[in-house]
Amino acid sequence: MVEYVSINGAQLAYRLIGPADAPLIITLHGGRGFGDHKSDYKAYSSLSSSYRVLSFDFRGHGQSSRTEPFTFHQVVEDIEGLRRHFLGPNQPCIICGGSFGGFLAQQYAITYPSQVSHLILRGTAPSHHHEETAIRTLEQRASRAPNLSINFLKDKIFGQFESDLEFRLVMYAAAPLYSENFDPDLALKHNIETVFYAKSHNDLYSKQEKFFDYRDQLPLITAKALVIVGERDWICPPEQSKDIASRIPGAQLKVIENANHSVHLEKNAEVIGLIEKHLS
């Protein structure tokens, strides 16, 4: 059941499962302007026998309020607000972020190093330069998404949408790229059920936000880090995760075969096993 908590003036929708006294995992979903907590909750709730798992919708996403501003900094401060709300001022948490949530996870671990005991990154990148490799990957796999053009990727998904409807239609065209076992019936259902909010997407891809680059700051991360990526990840290809793991001291890297950007769902048992081992 979804609940709400007021953090930094926004009403954030969340689900929390697991023993009250267990270590807290905060999961950070992907999808600037269209992601929500549901896929992370599905993927990681099996960890709740030993951990508290908190999955939430960022402001301007899913069922959370559309309280501006929509910036990387603000969402990172919301994550810190959630940690303090559920743990108190000085107790560290475990951060698990994928895709866009992985960008935020890196920024949070850099900004609040003492508040993160373990960092789990899934299918993400250390800078905006992943967009260049994603464009090349689309050129190689264009036949998988015949209704998605290079211009749609460059100017819309990595740029600005004119409306929520345009946003919805373009992401439906892109859907076949995200999974190695694409199911068109499931994709249509998921697209219909998803909240698309062009304003939050566009703000998070504005010139002030778009050109993020954590590479020089990654050595500042003190958390024990695990970096997971599907070998077929199209939008944050494995070379991006390899770069992250090479820069965070002591980070472990795992490239999972026959998996794409949704590796946490496609290879859930393997991913959960890796996380449990990492946290033990």
TrEMBL record:
Pfam families: Abhydrolase_1. GO terms for cellular component: membrane. InterPro entries: AB_hydrolase_1, AB_hydrolase_fold, AB_hydrolase_sf, Peptidase_S33. Residues 23-267 form the AB hydrolase-1 domain. Transmembrane segments: none annotated. Belongs to the peptidase S33 family. This is Alpha/beta hydrolase fold-1. It comes from Penicillium roqueforti (strain FM164). The lineage of its organism: Eukaryota, Fungi, Dikarya, Ascomycota, Pezizomycotina.
